[in-house]
Amino acid sequence: MPKVLLTGGSGFIAAHVLDQLLERGFDVVTTVRSEEKGDKILAAHPNTPKEKLSYVIVKDVAQDGAFDDVWIYSLRFGSISIWSYLLINEKAVKSDPPFDYVLHTASPFHFNVQDPVKDFLDPAIKGTTGILKAIKAYAPTVKRVTITSSFAAIINPKNHEKVYSEKNWNPVTWEEGLDSSNTYRASKTLAEKAAWDFVEKEKPNFDLATINPPLVLGPVVHYLSSLDAINTSNARISGLVRGFNKDAIPPTGTFLWVDVRDVALAHVRTIEVSEAGAQRFFITAGHYSNKDIIDIIRDAYPELDDRLPPKDAPGDVPKDVYGYDNSKSTQVLGLKYRGLKESVVDTVKTLLENGA
Fold first, then answer.
1. pLDDT range class, residue 62, cuts 50, 70, 90
2. Secondary structure of the chain in HEC code, one letter for each residue
3. Which of 99-113, 173-187, 218-232, 299-313 has the highest mean pLDDT?
4. The pTM is what?
5. Which of 68, 137, 210, 347 is the most exposed place for a label (fewest CB within 10 A)?
């Protein structure tokens, strides 16, 4: 089977990508920032053969040469709880047998911006260009690299399009990205542009695809360390379930969403579908609002009613919200999107299982 390098393996989206890769028979090496994170991933897949899953430690993707010298850790034998570490000082992008594909999901997403450059811009941009340079230099067998970008690289919040698609680009600049309110969008936009520029100028051995989802909801992974470590996009559901918004419905923000399992499948399909090369994919299931989410939770979990805002609390659904065109994702990748009710119900279930 083809072999895949998956970066940021402990992340929300990457965890679901990893599960789908393994289910479809791919051999996977994933990058993590620490041995602890890597061990949790291995422990979560006790029946996976050791040759199918391993991890490498990349402590800081923004550092020059971050994907060069690393330690490789292999999975334990069968389901026995004895770790067998294969310690090899090597390049993250080199492997035996060699990699066929790379899925690069590692990039920060949170709202605690202390230093825009250090916290967001450098990790996103340098992490992206750094891995592309390493692949070109050390991994000539790689056919395609898929990068997790974002609707943030598409949307123009100052002058909305009537209908958003892959054709649109956020016009944000580096200087504007130094303002914390713009930092995340700038990091995703500039990182994706840097990736396309690299491929155009360097003419590497691989082609490129990008996945551009808006708000990503869906079940949390079963090795979540704590509810306080919940991914940023699911934090709104976690806050509702935990009773943090009893008085009023919080602002929705971006009015487009998608389930994480569909985002994960989109990543995998980009390496299964030859026509996916050299393309962006806007991955969205459609419109939603926080009031929609609350109504679904109240109906599916009536025991949580006293933790939710009042039934008559007003929502913020505008009548003229921008439209979307996700046809490329359905036509090329064959996606069939989950509905909001399924996504929210499944998400709340996993949150309750994790102590919400």
1. low
2. CCEEEEECCCCHHHHHHHHHHHHCCCEEEEEECCHHHHHHHHHCCCCCCCCCEEEEECCCCCCCCCCCEEEEEECCCCCCCCCCCCCCEEECCCCCCCCCEEEECCCCCCCCCCCHHHHHHHHHHHHHHHHHHHHHHHCCCCCEEEEECCHHHCCCCCCCCCEECCCCCCCCCHHHHCCCCCHHHHHHHHHHHHHHHHHHHHCCCCEEEEEECCEEECCCCCCCCCHHHCCHHHHHHHHHHCCCCCCCCCCCCCCEEEEHHHHHHHHHHHHHCHHHCCEEEECCCEECCHHHHHHHHHHHCHHHHHHCCCCCCCCCCCCCCCEECCHHHHHCCCCCCCCHHHHHHHHHHHHHHCCC
3. 299-313
4. 0.90
5. 137
